[in-house]
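REQUEST FORM: STRUCTURE PREDICTION
Request ID: SP-0412
Submitted by: Lab K.M.
Chain count: 1
Length (residues): 468
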Amino acid sequence: MGLNFDPIGGGAFKQALKQIIEVERQPVKVLDAKKAREQSKLKLFQEFKSKFVNLEKTLGDFTSFGKFRELKADLGDGANLASVTLDKDKAEPGNYTIQIDQLANRASVISNPIQDPDEKVLGMGFIVVQMSDGTTKEIFVDNDQSSLNGVAQIVNKDPTSPVRATVIKDMSDPEYPWKLILAARKDGLNSSVSFSELYFLDGIEDFYIDNNNESQNALLYVDGFPIESESNHIKDFVSGVNLHLKSARPDQPFTITITEDYEKIAGKIKGLTEQINSVLEFINKQNQIDEHTDTKLTFAGDTGLQMIEYRLRNMMHEGFPTGDPETEGDFRFMHLSQLGVEFEKNGLIRFKEEKFQKALESDFEHIAEAITGTYGFANQLKEILQGYTSSITGALSHREKGLLDRIKNIDNDIAQKEQRLEQREKSLTEKFARMESSLANLQRQQQYLSATLPGAGSNNMVAQLLGG
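STATUS: Completed
RESULT:
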């Protein structure tokens, strides 16, 4: 029998090499598993951190009286005549009697009817606009743009034009339904414009002003006093209240009533308690373990989370100062439980919205101070959160960095071990290659001796020595 060996590319060699490397890769697999656990904990921790961040954002609505309060406006029968928007930082609760005698209007003209809005039949000419300050604006129209739509395009593309153009369809005359409206950009007398005429020559059809509307200011009464406005949108008609006029009805005065919006404030408190519950619920879930729980993947028994829970619970049981210490009977400590914020047996918060609203209605100022004051609930909670969420000194940021550093170190260890394995695989391949070369030489020698020495059969001594 002659020498037999497996070539480097052969299956037996590959299998042997794979088995050797697989055995030596076990430490890498251990590191991969460790990395997966750390990544799982990091993802879980980032979920927890996001709950803290969301709580801190929500808390932004409670750190001052202006942010905490909410206002609403009731217009009663005047809702179809006007609307209001409120700046809660400026507006104050109160009642205002309104009567709208006249809406503001902008100057405008309408042309005679034209059969086709795209047909170039108007000729060449000028639109001359006289403004309230005495200046004049001329807009030139050439033959290529002498259609209604062409004129409108020129007017509207000119940034210095004091008017806007609109092509409309009026079916009172089906044969000639198209007209051009030119209107001042703004309402009121101060923005008034006038049109001497439309000066067009050599047109197939006449083009002229058929009718016009004069500009006017809005006229209304506020608590019996006459007020004139150049716009139907009156900003700060009283401090923090913007009035938007819809329709004039001199015979229909109405009352705007601005009050604290207790329902909306309660909704904000409800949202805040839900965010706090989200944090507490996460911590509670981490501490719920059984024989199937892999504590390496959770924060069960984590002292950091337990401290957070402890501080939150203690703070929410405290009393918060409100009132003037120098005024007898005014200063006192207010507890959240008085406002409908209570702990349940499962460790979470229950918010009694109706109880909170009733408390607001009876003692709004003191409750607002207890929540938003310097030593109130919101600012104390904010101080606790900042100790954890600060990107520089926060405990959560340090904890997250620690997890990220551990993952990075594991990655470095894996990279080093993978590099050594590559070198090991290369070394083994080279050794097998050298062994193959040696065996090939021995095989060639066997073949030579077998061919040259007598008795080349099965009893050949050289063949026997070489394994034949």
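NOTES: The mean pLDDT is 86.
Reviewed by: T.R.
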